[in-house]
Amino acid sequence: MSDPIDRKGLKSRFWERKSLDQMSPKEWEALCDGCGKCCLNKLEDEDTGEVALTRVACRLFDDTTCRCAQYDIRHQFVPECIVLKPSNLDTHAYWMPETCAYRLLWQGKPLPEWHPLITGDPESVHAAGVSMRLRTVPEFEIDQDDWEDHIIEEPI
Ligand code: SF4
Ligand code: SF4
User: Fold this and answer.
1) 72 φ, ψ to 5°?
2) Which residues are in coiled coils (predicted)?
3) Would residue 104 count as lying in a domain?
4) How far is the CA of 47 from the centre of ligand 1 (A)?
5) Cα of 19 to ligand 2 centre, how many Å?
């Protein structure tokens, strides 16, 4: 499958030489590995602040492609969908998936070896078993009170 993210023409290992707020919009977008885990509904423990992922996916998530089905116009349907930026990463990193490239770099960690920027292959995230491809249930099928029955260990 062709890469839905344009990663062509980027400087080799730019993420090791630039801070997140120095990246161009194209470099920033290219950091996304396409795992789809940020499109899962999460449960947050009010007392501990712990975040659990569920396999209950946002209504716009298509788990065959592992992508948002309406990315460009998603806010018409899901106004609460976050637009992640260097300026709001401090606020959101705590709930981002453990393997998310934005969270890893924010934590000062390297990208994993299966990341498409390293392999040159958008399929490598799926082959590594860390994506949500064919692993979700749509939120309109599951009552919110039952989401805790669908808590998953993060595929890492
Ligand atoms: S969790 Fe991070 S790397 Fe995975 S799809 Fe979301 S933004 Fe991209
Ligand atoms: S609107 Fe699209 S990008 Fe946002 S959480 Fe839902 S599926 Fe993911």
Assistant:
1) -70, -30
2) none
3) yes
4) 26
5) 26
